[in-house]
Amino acid sequence: MRLSIAALFATLAFAAAASAQPAPRTTAEILAAAQPGEWRPLDLDHTLVMTFGAGKTAIIELAPAFAPETTANILTLARQRFFDGLAVVRVQDNFVTQWGDPEGETDKARSLGAAKTTIPPEWSRPRDRALPFTRLKDRDGYAPEVGHSGGFPVARNRRDTWLAHCYAMVGAGRGDAPDSASGGELYVVIGHGPRQLDRNITLVGRVVQGMEHLASLPRGTGPLGFYEEARQRTPIATVRVAADLPDGGPAGKLEALRTDSASFEALVEARRNRRDAWYKQPAGYIDLCSVLLPVRAKP
What we know:
Elements: H1 2-20, H2 27-33, E1 39-41, E2 47-52, E3 56-62, H3 68-79, E4 87-92, E5 96-100, E6 125-126, E7 134-135, E8 145-149, E9 152-156, E10 160-163, E11 169-172, E12 186-189, E13 203-209, H4 211-215, E14 234-241, E15 254-257, H5 262-272, E16 295-297
Antiparallel strand pairs: 1-15, 2-3, 2-14, 3-13, 4-5, 4-14, 5-12, 6-10, 7-8, 8-9, 9-10, 11-12, 11-13, 15-16
């Protein structure tokens, strides 16, 4: 009889504790409750503002911690107005949007000026405890560990850390030679993360605003999504370094959620186990490339 009473009290205590637990929050509720210190301004010294097409804008935050030489070269090119007047030359469905000099490698190709023409591949960097890293607990098929560092999706093993090819990540196009990526030709991932490209090409940053414009451009009709006619290309008007614009231009009005914050951790968990009314079966898992970086206008 005593055991039955004890069991009853235990059941009641468990039910009371369960009822006292706060209801799971949606991603929107988590973001709304995020504290001011959990948001950070964009790194304007390493952010590009690209205008293209009919008044469209894309903002790209670069990753000098992972690709310092390529980042510096891209900044030099932007300040030389290298990208102005170039074009989107390739849009391959479920893969990438790519922009650069339509003349390619012909003798008419635009000069890189003071920028370097070749750069050693920056495909990974040595693993370093000083580098911020917020690990995902979920398993990954491409690396022993994955997570985020400074707003970027990263993977690592015992020796190296590298940026991952997720949606909105920007890379420097290259030829067969590993050192042939100058940053004068860039691409952005517009489809499911092609992680097989990791550690085969230099990733330089990610688009933090304007992906809807880059991902919805008409698909190229030629091999690999290249445009076959000049009229199909989307012209690039300007590419500027945000720090060179008054108040940082449109990039100066934005802030991103810190990927080492409690709210970001809660956001990941909310997406790992969706409990919105529509979802009936939480997945209990999240892929690295399914974790999005929240960016908002500064309050």
